[in-house]
Amino acid sequence: MGELRPPLDALLLLLVDRMSGVIRERVEACGLSMPQAVALRYLEQPCPMRNLARAMRCDASNLTGIADRLEERGLAVRRLDPDDRRVKLLVLTESGLAMRAAIHRRISSDIAGLERLGPAERELLAELLWRVVRE
Amino acid sequence: MGELRPPLDALLLLLVDRMSGVIRERVEACGLSMPQAVALRYLEQPCPMRNLARAMRCDASNLTGIADRLEERGLAVRRLDPDDRRVKLLVLTESGLAMRAAIHRRISSDIAGLERLGPAERELLAELLWRVVRE
DNA sequence: TATTGTTATACTCTATAACTATA
DNA sequence: TATAGTTATAGAGTATAACAATA
Q1: Integer distance in angstroms from CA A10 to C1' C12?
Q2: pTM higher than 0.70 for the full model?
Q3: Does the beta-carbon distance from B116 to A131 stay under 8 Å?
Q4: Which domains does chain B have, with CATH numbers?
Q5: Minimal CA–CA distance to A121: which of B124, B122, B116, B5?
Q6: Residue of A123, A125, A135 for testing the chain B interface, max B β-carbons within 10 Å
Q7: pLDDT tens digit string along B15-67?
Q8: In sequence order, what E strands does B17-110 have?
């Protein structure tokens, strides 16, 4: 029963694979597509559509449709920017803020096999990941 | 300069987010879409299209198009299953095997900020992740 | 009857290019 | 002239439902 441990890179890929699947499931259980959920996450504050596109690493033309669908669902609205009349600011509604929080809550809870680690091991894992992930 | 360390769940989400982006970039630099690359990864051996769809967690009807495009690129071929004439086995070509290996190589190398950890710390991280990710 | 792969349909995401209204 | 958002277009992924061939 001596199961061979895969190398670190394989473990990281496995982790990403599993977590991505679970995240997608939970987001779609909330009735949103992934791009819509990602947009919500970036909309902590009113944001020009152009900036949002940059943050989401997609072409600006895509944001038209994504914003349309967020508006249709009542999760966000377009607001004119008084300082530059070319710009439209995308802003979360109350409902959008609630959805954003709900998705974050669902995604952050019950992660993978984290329950198999004790408090000290989680602390250790967090320290190591912090070193890896830090800017 | 005392930067606050985010909680473990946030660190894991951050890691997944970063790695997912890099993986997508590298896959698309190889000229494939993510679903095509995932299909290649699962095609270690000839595989009925139905099983592949199950593994990829998508409807079987999607595999028709994905397999079509893999065949157009000469990366895979459909082969009849002698044991069950309803079944078509998807099989990698030589070119498909090479692409599969190339993608895996590119994805596995130079991961995120892993270079910031020493050998002992990497060993520790691998042990912890193995506990988390193990079946 | 049940299953495999396909087709038809509809929706979403994706990029490119052209357009408009501002700056 | 440059930029912000939109539109038009085309390709790809996604699910559902219906279908032909086979079990």
Answers
A1: 32
A2: yes
A3: yes
A4: 17-133 (1.10.10.10)
A5: B124
A6: A125
A7: 999 999 999 999 999 999 999 999 999 999 999 999 999 999 999 999 999 99
A8: 47-48, 76-80, 88-92
